[in-house]
Amino acid sequence: MKFPVGVQLFSVRDNCAADLRGTLKKIADMGYDGVEPYTLYNYTPEEFKAILDEFGLKAMSTHAPVQEFENPDNGGIDAVAEKYAKIGCDYVALPYIFGDTYPNGPKADEGFKSIENVADACMKYGMPLLYHNHESELEFCDDGQMILDKLYSLHDAKKFQAEFDLGWLSNGGVDPVEYINKYSGRVPCVHMKDFGYAGKVPEKVCRAVGIEYKDSDESSEFEFRSVGKGLLPVKRILEAAEKAGTRYIIVEQDNPTPGVDIMDSIAESVKYLKSVMD
User: Which domains, from first to last, does the chain contain?
Assistant: First the structure.
């Protein structure tokens, strides 16, 4: 059970903005196999790929919202897709869509057309379009279907696939292993976003990650943590991902754990992941 491990560069956004080359070198030295950018930091695609190549890093995917594709200043939908193909991405992921374009929103038709257009453009370069969830997509449409499920049901599975953010699924009360199993064959990437609570863990989270709920008067303070130091059932997730045909495990930590440097956290994450894959 081995997967290439990447890191979403949003996790280390301040470090990258200050010194992209130096940060990527440190990421490579930590043992990461690749990255998932969300911007090219004003480099051309060719320049950005050259830096990745210098440190032996693969652009596994990228985050690019619909608005980036539809902004005429960016040269059109095909030009944006070509940009990410040039840096070597295997996938392009929508990091979000606006709530009014959800399948149950007032601009649902507009949202559907936008996703279709972006997916078609990306597929011209052999890059399926992925969708990265948060918790808002775990709400339900009027027909009783979860918004996230509705999104996937509306689009062809070959061109529109999943990049499950396992932290947001779990914190929203959804079993991450169950969802990987449910979309087996359609989950090429997952975001391994570990998290915990200073204090009481909410009951719905306990159910999702398979731990016993313990009621108390403690407060519940959410915090991001390095992989292996939180509540995610990492080993069960990796086993499910292997069966589901997942290709890439991508670490994402939106903000540092209180009192811990983010570079130390992502170093701990890849070390832990590589250890449990051996």
Answer: 5-277 (3.20.20.150)
pTM of the entire predicted model: 0.97
- Do the Cβ atoms of 87 and 59 come closer than 8 Å? yes
DSSP string for 199-215 = EPPPHHHHHHHT-----
Number of neighbouring beta carbons within 10 Å of residue 19: 11
Beta bridge partners of 196: 223
Residue 36 CA neighbour count, 13 Å, CB half: 31
| 77 contacts 69 by C-beta, under 8 angstroms | yes
- Residue among 42, 50, 34 nearest 16 (CA): 42
Torsion over CA: 94, 96, 102, 103 (sign): positive
Q: Where does residue 274 fall: left (phi above 0), alpha (psi -120 to 50 degrees), or beta otherwise? A: alpha
pLDDT mean for each 10 residues of the chain (278 residues): 96 98 98 98 97 98 98 97 98 96 95 98 98 97 95 98 98 98 98 96 96 88 97 98 98 97 98 94
